[in-house]
């Protein structure tokens, strides 16, 4: 079994096994994305259908018996929109495009005494849409210090369109001398294509770049793609150059064939999670210590929790920060102190940086809600305790003073 077939089979059977782990999805809600990269080696073939090629003996109407094609590395890209269900699964609709130059296409005439027609000119374009299903691997599988990426696998099913452009091969008349062959020959051309069922297997990883924008991630993917046979038109012309006195071209035959397509891609892209901001609105530029008296003392310490190896505030975290700001307005407050923590997995240098980044995220949210930065102080402490992958340790403590 070829490697590509093994990859698709492993992807299809691996999804239900991964689902049993109870992992949480990295993306919860709507997201959009795009990716570009190399469309790697592709192939197309059929051996069971004629392709509309006559032999030299036009009276026999002997159709050809097969087609194979190999293509060079080209360009590919996708755009997508999807939804994360919060349980590890995502669903997505995608548009895709691939373009590959032709290394070699061989069209078999099947006639006695004749060789194969071969050309290395032209382009294969493949485009369409897919409906994809993904599973994000549980990040708790990795120590916190190694959770800088989110692996995922996926499968897709959709509709693709294959189009050959500029593909032509010549068949000389071997019953004539060389000079006559140059002036009188058959020319076989592949024309417009058609569509059929397309499918793909995907393995990739997302790398969060919350420091640029919360919810933004870089993605890197390998994709195996295939398409079932779809009719492609073939035409054969009888060409006579009349020794340079003017070319005559007569359509000798037409037919179609159904090549199956196989290819792979390596893509690099961006994905942005459109996570809603449910934080309550706050009046801008109100200093800490502002105040209308509170009916009762408010809580003075708040804890904001974070996802695995992330410094991005989610909706629940922003809600906690908003509650802390509201408390600072109700009870006279002179400063807000922040203390960032990470869990005890991973290496100390990474945990120190991660805890400091969490403090920076909370500081930015406090400022957005109107707290002067001069009233905010904070630091990251690295790992909190030695309890391993403890979700309670992935936090920032907000203390109002």
Folded structure, characterized:
- The chain has helices spanning 3-19, 178-183, 315-330, 348-368; strands spanning 28-39, 42-46, 66-71, 74-85, 89-108, 117-119, 123-136, 150-165, 167-172, 184-190, 195-208, 216-227, 232-240, 248-257, 260-273, 301-305, 336-342, 376-383, 395-400.
- The chain is mainly β and 401 residues long.
- It has 2 domains: 3-273, Porin, CATH 2.40.160; 301-400, 60s Ribosomal Protein L30, Chain: A.
- The strands form 3 sheets. Strands 1, 2, 3, 4, 5, 6, 7, 8, 11, 12 and 15 form an 11-stranded antiparallel sheet that branches. It has a 4-stranded antiparallel sheet with strand order 9-10-13-14.
- A hairpin with a 3-residue loop joins strand 4 (74-85) and strand 5.
- The longest helix has 21 residues, at 348-368.
Large-scale geometry: rod-shaped
Low-confidence stretches: 1-25, 49-64, 109-115, 276-298
- Largest β-sheet summary: 11 strands, antiparallel
Distance between the termini: 67 Å
At the first level of CATH, the class of the largest domain is Mainly Beta
- Gyration radius (Cα, Å) is 31 Å
Going by CATH, the architecture of the largest domain would be Beta Barrel
Classify the secondary structure makeup into a structural class: mainly beta
Strand content: over 45%
Q: Tell me the count of domains.
A: 2
Instruction: Give helix and strand order, one letter per element, not per position.
Output: HEEEEEEEEEHEEEEEEEHEHEE
Number of H/I helices: 4
Mean model confidence by pLDDT: 76
Q: What is the count of β-strands?
A: 19
CATH topology-level name of the largest domain = Porin
Helix content: 10-25%
């Amino acid at each position: 079994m070829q490697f590509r077939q093994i990859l698709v089979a492993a992807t299809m059977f691996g999804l239900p096994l991964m689902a049993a782990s109870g992992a949480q999805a990295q993306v919860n809600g709507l997201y959009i994305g795009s990716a570009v990269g190399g469309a790697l080696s592709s192939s197309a073939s059929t051996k069971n259908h004629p392709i509309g090629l006559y032999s030299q003996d036009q009276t026999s109407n002997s159709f050809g018996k097969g087609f194979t094609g190999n293509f060079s590395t080209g360009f590919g890209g996708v755009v997508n929109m999807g939804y994360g269900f919060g349980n590890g699964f995502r669903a997505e609709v995608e548009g895709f495009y691939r373009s590959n130059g032709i290394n070699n296409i061989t069209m078999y005439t099947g006639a006695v005494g004749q060789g194969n027609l071969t050309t290395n000119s032209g382009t294969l374009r493949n485009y369409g849409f897919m409906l994809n299903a993904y599973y994000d691997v549980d990040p708790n599988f990795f120590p916190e210090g190694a959770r800088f990426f989110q692996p995922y696998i996926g499968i897709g099913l959709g509709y693709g369109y294959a189009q050959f452009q500029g593909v032509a091969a010549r068949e000389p008349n071997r019953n004539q001398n060389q000079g006559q062959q140059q002036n009188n020959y058959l020319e076989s051309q592949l024309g417009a294509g058609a569509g059929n069922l397309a499918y793909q297997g995907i393995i990739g990883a997302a790398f969060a770049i919350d420091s640029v924008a919360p919810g933004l991630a870089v993605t890197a993917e390998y994709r195996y793609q295939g398409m079932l046979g779809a009719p492609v038109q073939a035409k054969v012309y009888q060409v006579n150059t009349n020794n340079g006195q003017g070319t005559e071209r007569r359509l000798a035959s037409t037919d179609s064939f159904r090549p199956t397509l196989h290819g792979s891609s390596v893509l690099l892209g961006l994905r942005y999670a459109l996570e809603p901001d449910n934080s309550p609105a706050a009046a801008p530029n109100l200093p800490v210590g502002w105040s209308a008296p509170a009916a009762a003392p408010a809580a003075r310490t708040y804890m904001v929790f974070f996802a695995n190896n992330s410094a991005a505030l989610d909706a629940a975290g922003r809600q906690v920060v908003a509650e802390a700001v509201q408390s600072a307005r109700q009870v006279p407050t002179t400063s807000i102190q922040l203390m960032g923590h990470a869990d005890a997995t991973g290496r100390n240098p990474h945990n120190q940086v991660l805890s400091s980044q969490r403090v920076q995220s909370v500081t930015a949210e406090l400022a957005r809600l109107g707290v002067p930065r001069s009233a905010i102080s904070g630091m990251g402490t690295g790992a909190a305790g030695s309890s391993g992958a403890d979700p309670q340790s992935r936090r920032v403590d907000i203390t109002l003073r």
